[in-house]
Amino acid sequence: MKTTIDINDMLLERAKRHAKDTGQTLRSVVEDGLRQVLSQPKSAKPYKLEDHSYGDPDGPNPLESYTWSELRDLIYEGRGA
After folding, report:
1. Phi, psi torsion values for 77, nearest 5 degrees
2. N or C end of the chain: smaller count of CB under 10 Å?
3. Does 69 fall in a domain?
C-alpha cells in the first residue's frame, strides 16, 4: 500500500544511508522499524502525581498580592541566600 508521510530530514537521510550501507531498500528499513516498534509491549500508564494541594481551588489566590521579589524572599527565608 502506498502512503505519504512527513519525516524529519535528518532522520530520513540517516535511514537512506542505513539502507545503502546494509543493502536494503528504504522501504524495508522503514517497515523493519515499524515492526520493531509495534512488537514492543505497550508501555505502562504514565505516572500520575497524587494531588496534595489544599485550600479552596475556587478561592482567592493567596500569593496574588506578593511581587516576585517578595515571593523569592519568602521561599529562601532562613536559607542563607
Report:
1. -55, 130
2. N
3. no
CA distance 18 to 32: 12
Cα dihedral angle (29, 33, 39, 45), rounded to 10 degrees?
A: -170
Cβ atoms 29, 18 nearer than 8 A? yes
- pTM of the full predicted structure? 0.51
**60, part of any domain:** no
pLDDT of residue 8: 94
Mean local confidence (pLDDT), 31-51: 89
Host domain of residue 24: 9-39
Q: What is the DSSP track for 22-63? A: HT--HHHHHHHHHHHHHHSPPPPPPP-------S-TTS--TT
